[in-house]
Amino acid sequence: MNSRLLSDDELDELRESVADALLVLSNVALGDCSQQLDVDIHSSNPLSFLFSSINELISALGTEQEQSGAFRRDLEEKLETVDQQRAAIKNLSTPIIEVWQGVLCLPVVGVMDTARSAEMTSGLLQAIVEKGAKYAIIDITGIDVMDTRTVDHFIRMAKAIRLLGAECALTGLNPHIAQTIVQMGLELSDIVTHRSLRDALYRYVAHAARNTLEGKIASV
Amino acid sequence: MTEPLVRGYWITGALGFMGVHYSPEMSERLLTGLPRGLRTSAAQLGPVEWCPRSLHVELLKAIASVHTSEARAYDDLLAYGQYVGSEAAHGPLKSFLLISTLKLFAKKLPVLWARDHQEDGRLESDFAPIEEARLPLRLSGVRGYEHVGIAALGWIKGLMAPFEHKSLRVKQSGWSLAHGAPEEMTCEVAWS
After folding, report:
1. A46 at interface of B, judged by CB pairs closer than 8 A
2. Interface contact flag, B96 A29, Cβ < 8 Å
3. What is the mean pLDDT of residues B152-162?
4. What is the rounded CA–CA span in Å between residue B78 and residue B172?
5. How many CB pairs under 8 A join A and B?
6. Complex ipTM
7. SS3 label, residue A127
């Protein structure tokens, strides 16, 4: 627009209208779509048409913003649910069961990695202390494949358990894992092994029962 | 009665100002002295989000508390306002200030105040003496809004930076450190 065609007053008026629009747009740029430009709908001033279009855009943007806000909230809720489920799965993946007084059992299913091994060790050690357990049975019937690292995790777990004065046994080794351990030359002599969980339970529950009985007799 | 609100950028601006204006020790002392929750809520605050004026008052009081001398407290409050104004002048209000004349700026100051403060105070500007290189202002309805008058004066100073005046002077009456929240204040910005 050529300023020579406008009087000073008209130019001031035009400048003020543009300034008003810029102020509203500055808020829109920061995410506030609640404001609208004043528009005289009966005016034939080109700015009125421009401002009407800007208002429509602001309205559309505001609607989009509300929708994306709703999507975001929905997504956040879903992520929260996923987190809760992940925590539940984590708890389920290391279920420590007190099968008899002083005898704990940890059935392991799935894949062992360093993080899971650390969680298991920490959970088992804590349970041993809390329950005053003398025996911990780790049953790996649910593990199909074992590599050197996995064996190493169990050896470390057993050593840590022994440091607390408890005994650790590994049960449920399948023939395939037994062959692998031998072929790889892995050393499992630090860990007591039993063919099945049943064998280990028979032995340790009997031990625990005998200890309890002896304790009672001694106290009498 | 609804609680008066202020735009979030005044809050985040105050925290930013504390970080750059004071030593790390003083900044940490001021931040830890703030009510619990203010720091965490401020960290998630968007620039145009509304938040309770009471949070802003806590920050203003913290800035005013650094010095016991009234003159130095005044300088700090003014510098804080100028920091916020300058950030706005180089950010969201840049285009507006680029096309503004001093007269238009003075005319729009009440609008600028109102868009930053909901249900709170009223800023009036008398742009008649613009030709004399001065702008008298009156801020009213801000009882309980401690020290905001000086911060507002600094904010106006910061917003006027793009007009590139060699000397920009401000003066006020109505505020003192002991009487930080008068019902109204009169101020003036003059330049050469």
Report:
1. no
2. no
3. 94
4. 11
5. 42
6. 0.85
7. helix
| Residue B3 DSSP code | P
- pLDDT of B168 strictly over 90: no
Chain B environment of A28 (Cβ under 8 Å) = none
Over residues A169-188, mean pLDDT = 83
The better pLDDT of the pair A217, B84 is held by B84
Q: How far is CA A122 from the centre of its chain?
A: 18
Tell me the CA distances in angstroms from A212 to A133, A202, B86, one per residue in order.
12, 15, 78
On chain B, the residues whose CB falls within 8 A of the CB of A16 are 104, 107
For residue A220, how many other CB atoms are within 10 A of its CB?
A: 5
Total structural domains within chain B: 1
* CB pair distance less than 8 Å for B100 and A31: no
Give φ, ψ of A168 to 5 degrees. -120, 135
Mutate which of A16, A20, A58, A61 to disrupt the B interface (most B C-beta within 10 Å)? A16
A180-205 pLDDT, tens digit per residue, is: 888 888 777 778 889 889 999 998 88
Examine the pLDDT at B1 and tell me if it is beyond 70. Answer: no
What's the rounded Cα separation, in Å, for the pair A167 and A137?
A: 8
pLDDT score for A4: 62
Residue B168's DSSP bridge partners are B191
Question: What pLDDT is stored for residue B12 in this prediction?
Answer: 93
- Tell if the CB–CB gap between A31 and B48 is shorter than 8 Å: yes
Q: Which residue of B has its CA nearest to A19?
A: B96
Q: Nearest chain A residue to B92 by CA: give it.
A: A26
The mean pLDDT value for A64-83 works out to 94
Average pLDDT over residues A154-166: 88
Residue of A nearest to B112 (CA): A23
| B81 close to B157: Cβ distance less than 8 angstroms | yes
Residue B30 is part of which domain span?
Answer: 1-192
Q: Alpha-carbon distance A128 to A115, whole Å?
A: 20
Beta bridge partners of A107: A139
CATH number for B89: 3.90.1520.10
Residue A5 pLDDT > 80: no
